Amino acid sequence: MIDIKEVQAEALFAKVIQGLHNNEDAQLVSITKKIQTIDALDFYRRARYMGRNRTFWTNSNRSLFLVGIGEAYEIIADQSRFKETKQQWDNLLKQATIHNPYQLPGTGVIALGGMSFDPKKETTELWKHFKPSQFTIPEFQLTNYQGESYYTINVFVKKNDHPSQLAATIRQIEQTLFQASQVEAESFSIEKKVEIDPEGWKESVRVATSEIRNKKAEKIVLAREVRLSFDKQPESSVIIDKLLDTQANSYIFAFEKNSHCFIGATPERLVKVEQDRLLSTCLAGTAPRGKTKAEDERISYGLLHDQKNRQEHDFVVQMIKLAIKDYCTDLVIPGEPIVYPLKNLQHLYTPVTAKLKAGHSIFDIIEQLHPTPAVGGTPRDESLAFIRENELLDRGWYGAPIGWLDSNQNGEFAVAIRSGLIHGDMASLFAGCGVVKDSNPEAEYEETNIKLMPMLSVLGG
Ligand SMILES: C=C(O[C@@H]1C=C(C(=O)O)C=C[C@H]1O)C(=O)O
Ligand SMILES: [Mg+2]
User: Fold this and answer.
1) 140/407 Cα distance (integer angstroms)
2) Residues lying with their CB under 5 A of ligand 2, a single-atom ion
3) Distance 284 CA to ligand 1 centre (A)
4) Which ligand 1 atom minimizes the distance to the CA of 372?
5) Residues with catalytic function
6) pLDDT tens readout for residues 257-316
7) Given this model, what pLDDT does residue 78 score?
8) Helices (H), 51-197
9) Which residue has the least CA distance to atom 8 on ligand 1?
10) Where does the Chorismate-utilising enzyme C-terminal domain lie (predicted)?
11) Residue whose CA lies nearest to ligand 1 atom number 9
12) pLDDT confidence tier of residue 182, bands split at 50, 70 and 90
């Protein structure tokens, strides 16, 4: 099967098991092979009936696809979640046996996961399956990097495991994962769409605006929820397929946890690290797309020169600059934003590049950046306190860092916006916007409507 020499895996398991001292002892074994190129979404689809959670990730230029099936190991953290997650990951790697001859970003052992927006906000029933910080080392993983496929198995081996049994189980699952048959997913349709208290939300925008005028804060991002019910539970692979078709320039992701799936197409990079090269993005300020080229150009010109949107954007630029400057050298941030076009809307965009100083990790950067004023506000503590008290929803993982990291100082995190949580035959979609002193509740409401479109349209709304 697929180039993984079962004997070789089995021999490696045997060797590692031999080295374990007692029954509590366990170690991660990770084996990566290059395989014939296969489609990432096909791989994801074939795992549908395995009774395992699936994860899907692709970056905005589609140079990398990651699919994870099952959990060989999970890193879960709550208090001091950034340091805690990093420490657990380092400890796991320190003891792991890793066979990865390729060393390309996203190959070999990776952790895929995310965090909640605000661990201080009480978790509701809706998000009960998603922890404040939860990273999975998948049992089976496909990495498609620049058009080539790499396949990884991860096994958390214990003293009383049997090498031949482990290998046999893997072989059996691989038969399904690599079988060429297409699994057709049934279609679904929306039966009901409910906006959660739109008038209450506009009122909260009004309150936020007056707080800002009273100098209690400068920017506060407020989100709202739209709840959908379907004739049957929507299958995530169908949604991913449509997002891939419609949402260029966006990261596309899905995290399954039991019968829940957090899924979306976000344009917003939080941070990418390749060795010591760091990229971040300031994305805030929004306008719709035009129907004709001329109208589109007029709107983007208007966006670039609009005071209110420029202010929303500038808070993000200033904050990111301050947040990472001590962690980097060679920091470059252009003085003027450009327009970043998406299918349904356009944003103001400023790229950030830098060199990460030795001794710092991607988690240090995420800890500094999250939440940026693109999803939280300015100042951070005041805006978060306002959101915690006045927002009518539990954001869960919406607006928070999601992404991956490997064992070679590479990783990338996006900000989980333009997203929704599928729960049974229901979905909760989320969208927010940056409230500043000149915000108008009706206009902000319209802005959230266009931000809901990417998800609504693929769900049939
Ligand atoms: C909060 C969201 O988007 C953020 C808010 C924006 C704005 O208000 O202009 C633009 C992009 C994102 O920074 C969302 O899509 O839910
Ligand atoms: Mg806005």
Assistant:
1) 16
2) 286, 433-434
3) 6
4) 13
5) 219, 268
6) 999 999 999 999 999 999 999 999 999 999 999 999 999 999 999 999 999 999 999 999
7) 93
8) 81-95, 163-177
9) 433
10) 198-451
11) 285
12) low
Ligand 1 is surrounded, with C-beta below 6 A, by 221, 223, 268, 283-286, 312, 347, 374-375, 417-418, 431-434, 451
Unique residue bearing structure tokens 């989980």: 416
Q: Is 235 annotated as a binding residue?
A: no
Query: What domains appear along the chain, each with residue ranges and CATH number?
Result: 6-177 (no CATH), 190-251+266-459 (3.60.120.10)
Q: Tell me if 92 sits within 8 A of 156, measured CB to CB.
A: no
Task: For residue 431, give the ligand 1 atom closest to its CA.
Answer: 16
Q: Name the 3-class secondary structure at 130.
A: coil
Determine if residue 256 is labeled as part of a ligand binding site. no
pLDDT of residue 344: 93
> What tens digit of pLDDT does each residue of 23-48 get?
889 999 999 999 999 999 999 999 99
Q: Which two tokens stand for residue 391?
A: 């927002």
Report whether pLDDT(5) > 60: no
Ligand 1 geometric centre to CA of 393 (Å): 16
**pLDDT value of position 6:** 53
Place of tokens 């009706």: 442
Atom in ligand 1 nearest the alpha carbon of residue 285: 9
Q: Which ligand is nearest to the CA of 347?
A: 1
**d(C-alpha 353, C-alpha 333), whole Å:** 7
Tokens encoding 171? 């072989």
Give me 15's structure tokens.
């060797």
Q: DSSP 3-state assignment of 1? A: coil
